[in-house]
Amino acid sequence: MPSLLKNSIPLSLQHVEINDAFWSPKLQVNREVTIPAIYQRCKETGRIDAWKLTWRPGQPREPHVFWDSDVAKWIEAAAHSLATHPEANLEAALDELIDTIARAQQPEGYLNTHFTVVHPEWRWKNLRDWHELYCAGHLIEAAVAYFHATGKRKFLDTVCRYVDHIESVFGAQPGQKRGYDGHEEIELALVKLFQATGEKRYLQLAKYFVDERGRQPHYFDVEAHERGEEPASYWAKTHEYTQSHIPVREQTLPVGHAVRGMYLYAAMADLAVAYDEVELLTACKCIWQHLVHKRMYVTGGIGSSRANEGHTADYDLPNATAYAETCAAIGLVLFTQRLQQIEPDAAYADVLERALYNGCLSGVALSGDRFFYENPLESRGQQQRWEWHECSCCPPNMARLLAALGQYIYAQHANEFFVHLYIGSAAQFDIAGKNVKLTQQSEYPWNGKIIFQIESEHEVDFTLALRIPGWCRSAEIKVNGEEVALAPLMQKGYAKLQRRWRTGDLVELNLAMPVERVQAHPQVRANCGRIALQRGPLIYGLEEIDNGKNLNDLVLASEEKLVVKFEPDLLGGVSVITGTAKRRRLAPWQDQLYRADAADTEKIFFKAVPYFSWANRAPGEMVVWMREG
Amino acid sequence: MPSLLKNSIPLSLQHVEINDAFWSPKLQVNREVTIPAIYQRCKETGRIDAWKLTWRPGQPREPHVFWDSDVAKWIEAAAHSLATHPEANLEAALDELIDTIARAQQPEGYLNTHFTVVHPEWRWKNLRDWHELYCAGHLIEAAVAYFHATGKRKFLDTVCRYVDHIESVFGAQPGQKRGYDGHEEIELALVKLFQATGEKRYLQLAKYFVDERGRQPHYFDVEAHERGEEPASYWAKTHEYTQSHIPVREQTLPVGHAVRGMYLYAAMADLAVAYDEVELLTACKCIWQHLVHKRMYVTGGIGSSRANEGHTADYDLPNATAYAETCAAIGLVLFTQRLQQIEPDAAYADVLERALYNGCLSGVALSGDRFFYENPLESRGQQQRWEWHECSCCPPNMARLLAALGQYIYAQHANEFFVHLYIGSAAQFDIAGKNVKLTQQSEYPWNGKIIFQIESEHEVDFTLALRIPGWCRSAEIKVNGEEVALAPLMQKGYAKLQRRWRTGDLVELNLAMPVERVQAHPQVRANCGRIALQRGPLIYGLEEIDNGKNLNDLVLASEEKLVVKFEPDLLGGVSVITGTAKRRRLAPWQDQLYRADAADTEKIFFKAVPYFSWANRAPGEMVVWMREG
Q1: Whether B429 contacts B11, CB under 8 Å
Q2: Cβ(B109)–Cβ(B158) under 8 Å?
């Protein structure tokens, strides 16, 4: 499929070997704790056995409309893990589960536990609310991942049969439903299925779902009428909730449920490339710009409101009630990576990195078996990670993101090789007709010195494009020990080292990484008079266990010197930021709620820890945005 | 009924004539605009005609379970108005409405529109949710007020027959329901009915309802079972919502729906006096102390959460989402006045005054025909007063409070005469066997100089107890031009001038009234680093119309001099507070949401207006708590 849109391709998992002091332990926990724990929970709750289709009315553990997606995301996570860390037992377990899933497929190709054993009569009756195509999408993504990891086609063939059935049900032909899912997901999955199989019908079906979205007469209203319901009684009140209020090409704002939106926009970006359609790309960019400039937490969290699990108004970013679902931050990574593939601009990787190191990573405990669904930026201590949740979308989503981390580091476009993220690893790729191995070593994110080493049997001409992060005010690069002038090399945030590379070439990148005091735009009411501490890509926060209570009352002097110290025994090894601050003494207040006397303050030493690592010790208060004055 | 508890009695409406530059115009608007407007809305919406009992199923304007209370509160407001400002037309209209209400009474005495014409089969079936006794309570209060205003007994006799019926239905005898209302109100109303009629059964019924509350087996669970419902499926989830989670004497915290609580606690205070019961008083004081020291806005607003229209946790006082229902602030006035009657301590009048001048008064527009249900302390401009609301409890509640304002100024206990509020007025009272007229003159709340003049045919020995407000750091008193030493006279916040008074005696009270910068307790997270401007009893706020946007970003220097100026043409004549502040410039931000550069600020002149007067001009932002640094 030809495309006039520029397009860089991420390196696949098999071509990237991660070996990193920060990430490798987390990936190990993901493989050894998180993925097994999620399987265990899926098993205990009935999600695995649901595929046997033996559930009967009146029995416990009734398959829920979401359940298939939880299992599918777990399979996807396990498949990514197999791609980099083959494991015979896991593969055997997956094969067995896939056999069960394949047996659950109905003669016409239909494949969904809830609508097979619980409510077969409601099949395709409520796309708006019931996640039927959403579950199909996750099955597709899982099957594609398993195919890429193992080369085995069985699951892929199963989902292809399902998609063939879906294609017969949905479309513009007489007798077909002109529908699309209330929870987007199948669209981006179908693009992956097309890429894996080469079958263009799948791409066309993705385009059909995206094009149809928001058209009048509105499909969700039509199907509501068919169910005998008043469309006006829709619980979410607006089709913005599902990004179907207007056709997608007319959309300019991120609205509604945040995860749904991110999945849709990701598919729109995929289709813009596949169909070479600038209009679709323009909508994506417009939405993305608006999102990251007006509606994104400093952690990369998005979707500030619990009410719609989504977006509200510009600059409405409350801290304590921040919803900022883990899945939404993951969705932002997915969407952003696609835009980055189209236009290599470090602004994308800046956002992706912000979300990855902060708003995503906070979603899983260091232990790997407890999770956050919501990621507030301030807490009174009531937030604790939970083991499992009835709506358990986030844990397997996080597991599949981590297992696929290798896909986010590098990308290639013609003879340009992009380094988007600084994660210790070795990349294998073919460029300018030669095979190259690039090794990256660093103590990132604790330290901004990164060393790259080239290995290639032959000398090779290509451009090594190193991202200079937006948070970095001063960077320098040495090639084989010799400093190069950076300014002439910079293109959209990347330092482009174009030269003939040979084995042994060493590139040293130094990113200055002082503590920054970040302010939010004056219209972010919650953060007026406050700063967030950031160092490198990491946002920091204060926890009660280190700093006592009343963290909102701490005030950092604007001239206060801040000290960074690596604590190897704290939270798996983190750099902390310390300094002194003031806090009002409580004693003089006695039982007064309001008083006009001058405040009596005490000086305290504070310690800030990386936001992603909060809530791993004793429960207590937390703040990201600290008063400054 | 003998009582060992000390008790001061407020002067009745007929004995206080208000003549005050601040309040008289507001009371005139209440009489001439608000009371007629509420009648008009009650008429248009069907609330008045509902009493004709002609509504039939399928017709519009189905009488709602709340409606009777709206009409009753209107009658009460109109009756208070007649007490001070007789008006033949209004009295005739009231007589006609009362005739209609009396005709609506059922043979057994029952009197409720909804449960007579809409759902007679549901009578007394859901006390928890359906406000049946609540409506009865407001009818009782209205009838008592009308009796006091006119001496006419018809309405009083009607409600007595209704109460006789209620007394037959509820009680501990076999065949009676051991119930009480989910929305307290009838309890305090029954105390008033007892006081008006001398009929002790009414007091006993009030005591029964209060004593029964929260006992096990829980009545609301019993009646839920009788309706075939699972008590556990109660929408409010907890009986704290109705203050019936435990028996009232065990209650120590203000919980649940704020208005309901205030009405209950008011009745508890009444019963503590009537039955000379210290235990009940102790519960009241404990709840009141907790409320005003940990859960009250600086405006006297209470009930911070919209979810339960009520209380949440200590120090949880968010500004933008403050619920702070007008009715709840009014309820705080009612509860506080009762405690003040039991123990004359200026701490009570301080709270009553705070609520009255701020959180109550903000509930009605200067024009008198638009209302706030919620009274936030910060707004983006989306809050506007509305003309009418389906749940329209607040407008007539405010109307009855204002029409009865005269009852809150003075109180008498033996030979002590208390001045609780500084409102220009003339009071007539008998003390030490003599008749006295006390005239109060001032420009309060704009000015702290208040002059009292005594008229009495005979010399008279009594104690004039003048409240020295908690907000005042420096007061002086002159009697007949001669300064008196204040300290020896002070008792629980009152300066007690005990002497032989004679006609022509002049007392001049001077309350220093500088602008105060009020801080909130450090545990009030929302207000860390912020101050509220207060002058005298008034809390101030900044509005966008005077100060531009991004009011949360304004920062007042702690040494900034603040200037007070009376503006006769602004908002009906108010003193404003002006000064200079800083605000970050928006231009340098361009489209950045976060940045680490030093802020570029601009100096601006700000003007703060009294909180009660906000939202009377163009829609826009508002803040009470201003940054200080």
Answers
A1: yes
A2: no
Residue-wise pLDDT for A2-25, tens only, equals 455 777 899 999 999 999 999 999
Q: Contact, B197 vs B205, CB < 8 A?
A: no
What tokens appear for B88 in the block? 């033949």
Do A293 and B555 make contact, defined as CB atoms within 8 angstroms? no
Active site residue A482: no
Residue with tokens 């600020």: B601
Rounded mean pLDDT of B566-585? 97
Q: Are B574 and B610 in contact (CB under 8 A)?
A: yes
Residue B33 CA to its chain's centroid (Å): 20
d(CA A406, CA A420): 11
State how far the Cα of A256 lies from the Cα of A307, in Å rounded to an integer: 10
A588 interfacial to chain B (CB closer than 8 Å): no
Please state the pTM of the whole predicted model: 0.91
Look up residue B405 and give its two tokens.
Answer: 């304002």
Q: Give A595's contacts in chain B (Cβ within 8 Å).
A: 518-519
Check if the beta carbon of residue A517 is closer than 8 Å to that of residue A560.
no
Q: Which residue of A has its CA nearest to B552?
A: A525
Please, which residues have CB within 8 angstroms of residue A21's CB and are 6 or more apart in sequence?
Answer: A424, A443, A573
How are beta strands A494-501 and A460-467 bridged, if at all?
Answer: antiparallel
Tokens 């009474």 sit at which residue?
B105
ipTM computed for the complex: 0.92
Residue A12: both structure tokens together: 């696949």
| Inter-CA distances, A437 with A232, A408, A449, Å | 59, 17, 20
Which has the closest alpha carbon to B579: B553, B598, B555?
Answer: B555
* Helical residues (DSSP H) of A525-578, grouped into ranges: 544-547
Main-chain phi, psi angles of A21, to 5 degrees: -65, -30
Round to whole Å and give the CA distance between A296 and A293.
7
Q: What is the pLDDT of residue B392?
A: 78
Residue pLDDT, tens place only, A432-456: 999 999 999 999 999 999 999 999 9
> What integer pLDDT is reported at residue A2 of this predicted model?
45
> A517 touching B, CB under 8 A?
yes
Length of chain B: 629
